[in-house]
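User: Predict the complex with phenylalanine.
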Amino acid sequence: MTDLATLEAEITAQIAAAGDVAAIEAVRVSALGKSGSVSALLKTLGAMSPEERKERGAQINAVRDRVQTALAEKKAALETAELDARLASETLDLTLPAPYRRKGSVHPTMQTMDEMVSIFAEMGFAVAEGPDIEDDFHNFTALNFPEKHPAREMHDTFFFNPKETGERMLLRTHTSPVQVRTMLNQKPPIRIIAPGRTYRCDSDATHTPMFHQVEGLVIDKAIHMGHLKWTLETFLARFFETDAVTTRFRPHHFPFTEPSAETDVGCDRSGGEIKIGTGSDWLEILGCGMVHPNVLKACGIDPDEYQGFAFGMGVDRLGMLKYGMPDLRDMFASDSRWLGHYGFSAFSAPNLASGLS
Ligand code: PHE
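Assistant: Here is the predicted structure with phenylalanine placed in the model:
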């Protein structure tokens, strides 16, 4: 065998032995690279006679061409094999469930609000709404607040700068203005709840400057306080999903109801969290009463023909009680760890048929 044939056989054997694309590249460099074995042979041509060079040159070039072709074929075969292996190992089974990665959750206040709406909806209440930015008439005057009532003062109410007319708009301090808007717009019988945001200049463990209320209003002939008490007690038992919940009605005063009461729920605050159905502490959760005749009159309803009851409850506080959160301020701190811990799945909308929470 000539040295050229030996070299070609060696290179051919190396190409055959190469197991991957990197190995084939190494063979290419060692044979055809600048200082490769075939290149070294081509460099010897310069020292030969023209006849010798013609013959030898043709032989070496033929070897180089065959090596080049063999390298290219082997490389293509290896690349195809590598792709096949990757395709086989990287299959994606689209029928598998998606990995559970929680990005967002339903805020406990919104969960609580949804639960409340579903309970009252089932009791026959419709949902009414009103604006967060209110005027003095709907927030106070029509609700029978006397001209000098302290709730109108700066320390409770967030007022806007006065308009040119001197009128000051305000952030509603309660959802009760929705009572007024509803009674002005529809004739009795009325049976609505009004969930929404409310604002007061106040902040401690059980008060935040923005909080949520659900207002309730029932107006019809022959409505009395027994209806009010039944409605609230039935609601609370369903909301807390237990008959162990204890309630306390305390006489109170609101300008827009007469008589009026505040309702507390019995709870235990001794541990780090609030528990209901046990303990000797109370948390005030709502105000209620029979709609004052002056309010009915201000809304064009004859108090001799119609009466009704109203209530307003703190949504965030009910959520705190039900889900054991000790501090109201945490609810609005936007701490993603807190939200991850207390938040609810967006896929489990509360309803009475399948359970609230
Ligand atoms: N608006 C009252 C409050 O925010 C609650 C309330 C509503 C009381 C309806 C009686 C009737 O405290």
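Residues 2-89 form one domain.
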